[in-house]
């Protein structure tokens, strides 16, 4: 099984009314705006919200793997491979002389 990172983008809307005491329309709007941003109307927002648009983007997670030679010296980092086996296979395919990392492991 592979690892995926999924980005989620939800565009939501919430419509409701709030009763406040104020001296003017502008003051009433400011009071309610402050309540929204101070999280005092969270329950009303949640109860009245709807999703207007949604987007999901999945991307396979790729990992970097360090590979070492027979003296345990770092050789190379294999970038952007979905798993260690794939990185090792790619590394072995690019070795000169046909020797693989498994040959080294057997000698050890």
Give a written overview of the molecule.
The chain has 2 domains: 4-59, no CATH class; 63-107, no CATH class. The two termini are 31 Å apart. β3 (63-68) and β4 form a beta hairpin. It has 108 residues and is an alpha+beta fold. It is built from 4 helices and 4 strands; from the N terminus they run βααβββαα. Helices cover 33% and strands 34% of the residues. It has helices at 25-37, 42-47, 84-93, 101-107, and strands at residues 4-14, 49-60, 63-68, 74-81. The longest helix has 13 residues, at 25-37. It has a two-stranded antiparallel ribbon with strand order 1-2. It has a two-stranded antiparallel sheet with strand order 3-4.
Blueprint of the fold:
Elements lengths: L3 E11 L10 H13 L4 H6 L1 E12 L2 E6 L5 E8 L2 H10 L7 H7 L1
Antiparallel strand pairs: 1-2, 3-4
Summarize the structure.
By secondary structure, this protein is of the alpha+beta class.
Features:
single chain, 108 residues, alpha+beta, 2 domains, two-stranded antiparallel ribbon, 34% strand
Estimate the mean pLDDT confidence. 80
What portion of residues belong to β-strands?
25-35%
Order of helices and strands: EHHEEEHH
- Contiguous low-pLDDT stretches (5 residues minimum) are none
Shape: rod-shaped
């Amino acid at each position: 099984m592979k690892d995926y990172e999924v980005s989620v983008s939800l565009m939501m809307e919430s419509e409701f009314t709030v009763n406040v005491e104020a001296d003017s329309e502008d003051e009433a709007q400011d009071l309610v705006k402050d309540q929204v941003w101070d999280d005092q109307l969270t329950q009303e927002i949640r109860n009245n919200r709807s999703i207007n648009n949604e987007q999901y983007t999945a991307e396979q997670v790729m990992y970097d793997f360090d590979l070492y030679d027979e003296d345990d010296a770092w050789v190379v980092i294999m970038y952007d491979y979905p798993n260690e086996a794939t990185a090792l296979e790619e590394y072995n395919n690019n070795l000169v002389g046909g020797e693989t990392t498994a040959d080294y492991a057997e000698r050890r």
